[in-house]
Write a structure and sequence with these properties.
The structure holds two protein chains of two kinds.
Chain A (H helix, E strand, L loop, with lengths): L7 H8 L7 H13 L1 H20 L4 H11 L3 H38 L12 H52 L2 E6 L13 E4 L5 E8 L7 E7 L7 E5 L2 E2 L5 E8 L6 E8 L9 E9 L2
Parallel strand pairs in A: 1-3, 2-9
Antiparallel strand pairs in A: 3-7, 4-5, 4-8, 6-7, 8-9
Helix pairs in contact in A: 1-3, 2-3, 3-5
Chain B lengths: L11 H11 L3 H21 L5 H17 L7 H20 L16 H17 L2 H10 L4 H15 L2 H27 L1
Helix pairs in contact in B: 1-2, 1-3, 2-3, 2-4, 3-4, 5-8, 6-8, 7-8
The chains are: A alpha+beta, B mainly alpha.
């Protein structure tokens, strides 16, 4: 069914549960969202906009109540919010070393910015200057001593971390030596052919654990072939049913043996004879065989 | 306080009957099932329901009952949607007496190891995004306050407007979420 696309404001009201008592309007919009595929992506983006506003603290009290009491009730939305936070945290962390250093520097200055409170500068200028010099010397010594202590502590921690990571690396080598993980999210039509995912296959590896995120709505069983660049003969082929989450995200999760795979560019070709799937999709990746 | 609603799942028999009702062709039946499931669970989520999967299973149970009684329906999605609306009305009536307690802080994963793992997976998944998408998500989160607003405005102009940017960001986040979930599952196995 095709109809006029409602405006984002109305969709927002709908998602905040404010149309639930306006039966006719609610029914009409629910029906359109269910049957009009063009509308569903817009609804999802309005959903994310509400989450962004929530995280930015831009919601007015009424909207905030609607978000708390209605919008964020489904666990799927809580998970979306949690992921949005995680994403923000990640990008904030990228700037953190600078901020942390600046804060430390500022707070150090504040801590050591000691001045006698009730002494008039004009009457005790010389004493003041001497005191400031003395203070600066003391502060300098404390600061240097602090740095040395910190450095010693960090060196000890680093040694411990190295020891720990050596142990973890050994354990993980034993556990993961036989599997190589490969996640593919963009097919050739959307990706940049110069920057395709890359995996290194060590001699101990036996299988590649593959996870392909499929675009659009969930299809039925799919034909999957692994092809080397420029070769007509598939290295591996299978008929697989995608895993579909409650929110409709479809993925192909499977593993393939590494036998016969060399250092080259490969593609998983995903196709289906079912109507509506469209043209086969190529998920390219580069393999390097480690010596 | 309302009685605790026990979670139940669709029985294999009911599921089989439902699939056969959708199509005699197995592949088409599975495909149609996934389409209906996606649309109806989204409907329940849009309506603020706390267990969309459970309500979907209830819907299918009811539909299977109707189908078994010999009723014929030419449009499965339209019929399932009608049943789903009734299931939602019923759920709304039950839900009214339940006090809602919502703890925003609980979104932080309590286990620091899992949280750390999530961040590592996110870092990895970001590198697997196509360069254009990666650039957009980095720019989208760049800066603070006024600078961020200006940066997003410029970014929106570059991609063809605010709504285009919103929809593109929505798609990128979705891809990232799928990638991170898969990565964590792998690392926990």
């Amino acid at each position: 069914m095709k109809s006029d696309v409602p405006d984002r404001g109305l969709v927002r009201e709908y998602l905040l549960g404010r149309l639930d008592h306006k039966t006719e309007l609610e029914e009409q919009l629910s029906h359109e969202i269910c049957f009009n595929d063009d509308l569903s992506q817009m609804v999802e983006s309005v959903e994310e906009e509400i989450i962004e506003d929530f995280l930015d603290g831009r919601l007015d009290p009424a909207d905030k109540d609607a978000v708390d009491g209605y919008f964020l009730q489904p666990p799927e939305r809580k998970e979306k919010l949690r992921f949005a936070r995680l994403l923000r945290h990640h990008f904030e962390q990228r700037h953190d070393p600078v901020n942390t250093r600046r804060e430390t520097f500022d707070s150090t200055n504040a801590r050591f910015d000691y001045r006698p409170a009730n002494i008039g500068r004009s009457h005790f200028r010389t004493y003041g200057e001497l005191a400031a010099l003395l203070l600066l010397t003391v502060v300098g010594l404390i600061y240097i001593s602090g740095i040395r202590k910190n450095q010693a502590r960090l060196e000890r921690q680093l040694a411990q971390e190295r020891e720990q990571s050596t142990t973890v690396a050994k354990e993980s080598q034993v556990a993961q030596a036989s599997m190589v993980a490969l996640t593919l999210v963009s097919d050739r039509s959307r990706g940049d052919s110069t920057q395709i995912p890359h995996i290194e296959i060590r001699p101990s590896a036996q299988r590649i654990a593959v996870d392909i995120a499929l675009p659009g709505r969930s299809p039925g069983p799919l034909d999957v072939m692994l092809e080397a660049r420029g070769k007509n003969q598939p290295v591996w082929a299978g008929h697989l049913l995608p895993v579909v989450s409650a929110s409709g995200d479809a993925r192909l999760v499977f593993d393939v043996p590494v036998q016969g795979i060399r250092s080259d560019v490969y593609s998983f070709v995903v196709s289906s004879s079912l109507p509506g799937f469209g043209r086969p999709k190529h998920y390219d990746f580069r393999v390097t065989l480690a010596q | 306080m309302a009685a605790h609603h026990e979670k139940r799942s669709l029985t294999p028999e009911a599921f089989g009957k439902f699939l056969r009702w959708l199509s005699v062709d197995d592949e088409l039946a599975v495909r149609e099932y996934q389409r209906i499931r996606t649309k109806l669970t989204r409907f329940f989520i849009h309506k603020g329901c706390t267990d969309a999967d459970d309500l979907f299973d209830k819907t299918v149970d009811i539909v299977v009952g109707k189908v078994e009684s010999g009723a014929q329906y030419s449009n499965p999605l339209a019929y399932c949607y009608g049943v789903a609306r009734n299931v939602w009305y019923e759920d709304t009536r039950e839900r009214k007496t339940v006090a809602i307690e919502f703890d925003v802080v609980s979104f932080e994963h309590p286990d620091p190891k899992v949280r750390e793992q999530e961040l590592q997976c996110l870092e990895r998944c970001l590198t697997q995004l196509p360069p254009g998408d990666r650039e957009i998500i980095v720019q989208y989160h760049a800066g603070q306050g006024r600078d961020r607003i200006e940066a997003r405005r410029a970014l929106a102009l570059g991609v063809g407007g605010t709504n285009v940017l919103r929809i593109r960001m929505c798609r990128i986040r979705k891809e990232l979420r799928i990638c991170v979930v898969a990565c964590i599952k792998r690392s926990l196995n």
